[in-house]
From TrEMBL:
The keyword Iron does not apply. Cell surface receptor that plays a role in the regulation of IL-13-mediated responses. Functions as a decoy receptor that inhibits IL-13- and IL-4-mediated signal transduction via the JAK-STAT pathway and thereby modulates immune responses and inflammation. Serves as a functional signaling receptor for IL-13 in an alternative pathway involving AP-1 ultimately leading to the production of TGFB1. This is Interleukin-13 receptor subunit alpha-2. Its main location: membrane. GO terms for molecular function: cytokine receptor activity. It is found in: Cell membrane.
């Protein structure tokens, strides 16, 4: 009620007063930034640890829950990631092709001061992997595919200016491994490593998978390349099998297929169907392994379809289409089937009978001829005797 009677000028005075009262008291409260802030690389190919020690002279805030506000990013990226924590370390994945920068300050929550949160100045740190070789020595066209959610395969091409004697090596790591592991089974071309067949990878999905391809030669240094991806996003399934096409009535056609064999659950597939009716082809998708299609014309002579599969959005953010399945077709009307099933065999049988008859007739003629000749001979013998 009292406020209702305040005019604009009074209200302003009130605000200015409160500001004046609080500023001097807060200015007295100061806190130091965290000590020994550093970015530590444990050798996990991009998974780094940011760590620090409590600020000096914390005694003023004995019963106060001190917090830290941490900001970090790859050098060159637009946005900082921000984390508020009470711990003295924080871990996250970074792209080691670039540098890393981070800053941290101490936060004293409002309840320990006179109502305003107090922050220290920033402590800063940066990290670069030791640079080696020039840009042109890095591998090119790195390509990794997780076939049927079972077999991971990566391949690459040598850098443009990579020296002839240099060879590449691949290391990988994901959360759960004690240390980075070198590829146990390289794909080779002319004695050089150009790819890696990974061993069976247990509990490696839905987490960052880190790869580093560097060089073995010290005399001709190679710049390492770093890659981060999640395995479920690079799955290429097998094509669907056992396609069947049933013409239900004059309008509807039922298409069915069985999902590819392997460890991928049925609920993770999306299928793309390419359906051809005479000369028109169109494409549709479904998450079931069958689909009902309406023909555009009940006169169509030829219906065909093929299917390919991919991991759907419920199981991954991305994926690769499988190869197309074999094509399955339905051709023409009933009378054509009649031709195939009755007329052709009938024609064959008729032809067979005809041939047999001819042969028999031919043989019979030959027989008659020999009999006739024999008779003639006997007759001529008789003639000579007489
Ligand atoms: C390649 O990277 C691995 C893993 O980080 C490291 O152990 C190895 O020493 C590196 N090799 C070269 C030649 O730098
Ligand atoms: C095709 O469809 C038309 C109209 O829907 C119908 O009148 C006709 O009988 C159908 N023909 C055949 C061969 O089913």
């Amino acid at each position: 009620m009292a406020f209702a009677h305040l005019d604009g000028r009074h209200f302003c005075t009130l605000l200015i007063c409160t500001t004046f009262v609080s500023v001097p008291s807060n200015a007295e409260i100061k806190v130091n930034p965290p000590e020994d802030f550093e970015i530590v690389d444990p050798g996990y190919l991009g998974y780094l640890s940011l760590q620090w020690q409590p600020p000096l002279f914390l005694d003023n805030f004995k019963d106060c829950p001190i917090e830290y506000e941490l900001k970090y990013r790859n050098i060159g990226s637009k946005y900082w990631k921000t984390v508020i924590t009470k711990n003295l370390h924080y871990k996250d994945g970074f792209d080691l092709n670039k540098g890393v920068e981070a800053k941290i300050h101490t936060l004293v929550p409002a309840q320990c001061t006179n109502g305003l949160e107090v922050r220290s100045s920033w402590s800063e740190a940066t990290y670069w992997t030791s640079p080696r070789g020039n840009e042109d020595t890095k591998v090119r066209e790195m390509d990794c595919v997780y076939y049927n959610w079972q077999h991971l395969l990566c391949s690459w091409k040598p850098g443009v200016s990579a020296h002839l004697v240099t060879n590449y090596q691949l290391f990988y790591w994901f959360e759960g491994l004690k240390h980075a592991i070198q590829c146990p089974d390289y794909i080779k071309a002319n004695g050089k490593n150009t790819g890696c067949r990974f061993p069976h990878l247990e509990s490696s999905d839905y987490k960052d998978f880190y790869i580093c391809v560097n060089g073995s030669s010290e005399s001709h240094p190679i710049q390492p390349s770093y890659f981060i991806f999640q395995l479920q996003n690079i799955v290429k399934p097998l094509p669907p099998e056992y396609l069947s096409l049933t013409v239900e009535n004059s309008e509807e056609v039922n298409l069915r297929w069985s999902m590819p064999k392997g460890p991928i659950p049925a609920k993770c597939f999306i299928y793309e169907i390419e359906f051809t009716e005479d000369d028109t082809t169109w494409v549709t998708t479904t998450v079931e392994n069958e689909i009902q299609i309406t023909r555009t014309s009940n006169e169509s002579k030829k219906l065909c379809f093929l299917v390919r599969s991919k991991i759907n959005m419920y199981c991954s953010d991305d994926g690769l289409w499988s190869e197309w399945s074999d094509e399955q077709c339905w051709k023409g009307d009933k009378w054509k089937e009649t031709v195939v099933f009755f007329l052709i065999p009938f024609a064959f049988i008729s032809l067979f009978i005809l041939v047999i008859t001819c042969l028999l007739l031919y043989n019979q003629r030959a027989l008659l001829k020999t009999i006739f000749q024999a008779k003639k001979e006997v007759f001529s013998h008789q003639e000579t005797f007489f």
